[in-house]
Amino acid sequence: MKALVSVKRVVDFNVRIQLKPDGSGVITDGVKHSMNPFDEIAMEEAVRLKEKGKVTEIVAVTIGGAKCEETLRTALAFGADRAIHVKEEGEVQPLTSARVLAALFKKETPGLFLFGKQAIDDDANQTGQMVAALLDLPQATFASKVELDGNKAQVTREIDAGLETLEVDLPAVVTTDLRLNEPRYLKLPDIMKAKKKPVESVTIAQLGVQAAPAIKTVKTSAPPTRSKGVMVKTVDELIAALKQKGLV
Amino acid sequence: MSVQRDVMEYDVVIVGGGPAGLSAACRLKQKAAEAGKEIGVCLVEKGSEVGAHILSGAVFETRALDELFPDWKEKGAPLKTPVKRDDVYFFLGEQSAFKMPNLFVPKTMHNEGNYIISLGNLCRWLGTQAETLGVEIYPGFAAQEAIIDEQGVVRGVVIGDMGVDREGKPKDGYTPGMELRAKYTLFAEGCRGHLGKRLIARYKLAEGADPQHYGIGIKEIWRVDPAKHQPGLVVHGAGWPLDNANPGGSFLYHLEDNQVVVGLIVDLSYSNPYLSPFDEFQRFKHHPVVKQYLEGGQRVSYGARAITKGGFNSLPKMVFPGGALIGCDAGTLNFAKIKGSHTAMKSGMLAADAVVEKLFAGAEGGDVLENYPAAFKASWLYDELYRSRNFGAWLHKLGAIVGGAINYIEQNWFKGRAPWTVHDRKPDHLCLKPAAESRSIEYPKPDGKLSFDKLSSVFLSSTNHEEDQPVHLKLADPSVPIGKNLPLYDEPAQRYCPAGVYEVVGEAGARRFQINAQNCVHCKTCDIKDPAQNITWVAPEGGGGPNYANM
Ligand SMILES: Cc1cc2nc3c(=O)[nH]c(=O)nc-3n(C[C@H](O)[C@H](O)[C@H](O)COP(=O)(O)OP(=O)(O)OC[C@H]3O[C@@H](n4cnc5c(N)ncnc54)[C@H](O)[C@@H]3O)c2cc1C
Ligand code: SF4
Hints:
The complex is a heterodimer. Chain A is an alpha/beta fold. Chain A has helices at residues 37-51, 69-78, 94-108, 127-135, 188-194, 235-244; strands at 2-6, 9-11, 33-35, 57-64, 82-87, 112-116, 139-149, 152-159, 162-169, 172-176, 199-203. Helices cover 27% and strands 27% of the residues of chain A. In chain A, the strands form two sheets. A nine-stranded mixed sheet of chain A has the order 9-8-7-10-6-1-4-5-11, with helices on both faces. Chain A has a two-stranded antiparallel sheet with strand order 2-3. In chain A, helix 3 crosses helix 4. Chain B has a domain at 8-70 and 120-209 and 316-387: FAD/NAD(P)-binding domain, CATH 3.50.50.60. By secondary structure, chain B is of the alpha+beta class. In chain B, helix 1 (19-35) runs parallel beside helix 7. In chain B, strands 1, 2, 8, 9, 10, 13, 19 and 20 form an eight-stranded mixed sheet that branches. In chain B, strands 6-5-15-16-17-14-18 form a seven-stranded mixed sheet. In chain B, strands 3-7-4 form a three-stranded antiparallel sheet, with no helix packed on it. The radius of gyration of chain B is 22 Å and the shape is globular. The interface between A and B is medium-sized, with 20 and 34 residues. The complex binds flavin-adenine dinucleotide and iron/sulfur cluster.
């Protein structure tokens, strides 16, 4: 069975995000980027399923500018067999991504379509769901455990009330949550080999999709800074301080 | 523990993706392409990406870049802000300063034709050029050891292991580091390279040279009020808050996009163990000359890095069997100009030329690249370093005013060719006076607007290390910090480390030396300044350390 894994290049989680002075977005020039951490988990899961003999081929796909090839090389170093780069230098919104990925699904016909549950840059948490809707596929989101059994998958999800286990028919969309696995260290020899693996490139237009932005960013602003706390020694002091602030 | 290591062979392995290493890599591939031949080049960089560990001023002289990529403008090199004006101040005290008339500014401090850049971004660009030329670059991997065979020939490097716990035991996902073998290995680790240091000792490369001298540079990036922003303005200063016994200098540059960078370089020959370079820098920003630009702005980044400033008189031999030192790993910085980027680039290019010459002549590798020092001697780089050879020593001996005046005479009257050479033969770590003979310093509290504490500063360097790994700051004798350094020097590591890595904790009588290794910004100051030379910096797991943007 083939697994298709969608991966995205995002500003690295270690980087302190800075806003553009004009409020039109965040600064991405000259800052470190890496694979979206939830997508790493999706890649890791695909590789583990392949190691267990449940998956035979892993294809990684990304949408974005020339630099995104790095992210695909990371996926190849994880263990993807090949990669597809949908080239687009401009902004790609979730619905466009979903349409592109749905088109790729039709071309590749995988048994399992894995996504990170969300990308840490826009936190949209939509793409997997929209792909499932566009393709009318079963979906299991926020997976913390995935088991493949013939043409079905058992997916455990962490929900407020505890654990929920779903059974879905394959092909299906599965989006991965934090506790599904811990992605491996990439080994230098694997990174070296990844440089030589094939990366196919296509454009959004070649897939028959039109990039039609549906969302307009009005403003980006920093979260309000927390004001300094005060230390109080006694309950009386606490009450006095709260009263002073007009909170009680 | 015997481990099975994967091995890859290349013609050339380069350690470090700074200006020196990247220029060498580009030059090797350019020459190979010109000749229609193949040279396999691999470069490893301990930062999580090229540029993540680069911290510089930087006013950049384009001489070497012009030679390497004459079409750098068309290729989009990130040199956006030409220098428009040079201001040089002598800071007399907290409130007062003397602005040097242009006439008296030494030639080496004039910056017409130079650019104010982020060296990190230039390195990112150079990295892209190198990869386009076919260099294999592996960021996130640190060279942990040089491979030296029984004949004493350097054969490459071993990459650090990944997935080792605090006690040094393999944990889940343990991956032994690979061996990267090469005909020639170029070490471009920058100031106080940890492999370079060992190679200098092992091959006695520093014999006959003056001891190397260093400074610690602390830098911040600010986004300032557009009304106060003057792109292209360069401000250099000497004097307050430092003095003749604890010398150094400051810089403040206006870049594009309302950015101002501000920094203080403290010579590591400073003598007062109570001095804290970090706190000196914080208070420096309150000086009216500096404050006028920063007030109302926002600090966006912080970092620190040592600089190798001994210059010509401290240059070690740069070659040994199978390899060479390039850039600040050797010590090619011109301290009279406080510029080491173009010189690092040039030294990398010269070493690359020497390697190419050997490889094309059919060399098997492993021999001494004697053609590199020969080409160095015939180059503008040698001439430049020679002319500035006395600067650091004058300043250290006579202080900023008199030393600076003599430097003015040397540079402007003798054009650097004065018929004398002055030496500074005292290593920096021996310059500390005992605490008992020193004045303790009470630093002002940070105001949270212009000045800040250490922890919130380190936070802005986006430093991160995998928590469960061996401490990468090794104490040869763990009893020294509390047993010797504390009574003698009040353990200066508490203050010279710009990241708050070293703390003396506990009550009197039960004091303990604590190392918060995960905060380390890889500046190398502790390795240099520890009076007992008891601290050795080794590379932590690859990818760890600061994640500088636009530094
Ligand atoms: C505060 C400050 C201000 C400065 N201002 C200026 C200026 O205005 N103009 C100017 O021209 N110069 C300036 N310099 C000097 C200039 O930055 C250096 O001379 C220059 O960066 C040296 O280049 P390099 O390639 O030799 O080393 P570096 O730039 O230090 O690069 C070394 C690289 O090697 C990597 N590395 C080290 N060890 C290993 C290892 N074991 N394995 C893998 N990777 C490793 C490091 O992470 C780093 O990326 C300044 C320096 C400082 C600190
Ligand atoms: S521990 Fe050493 S190298 Fe690390 S930040 Fe502190 S002084 Fe610099």
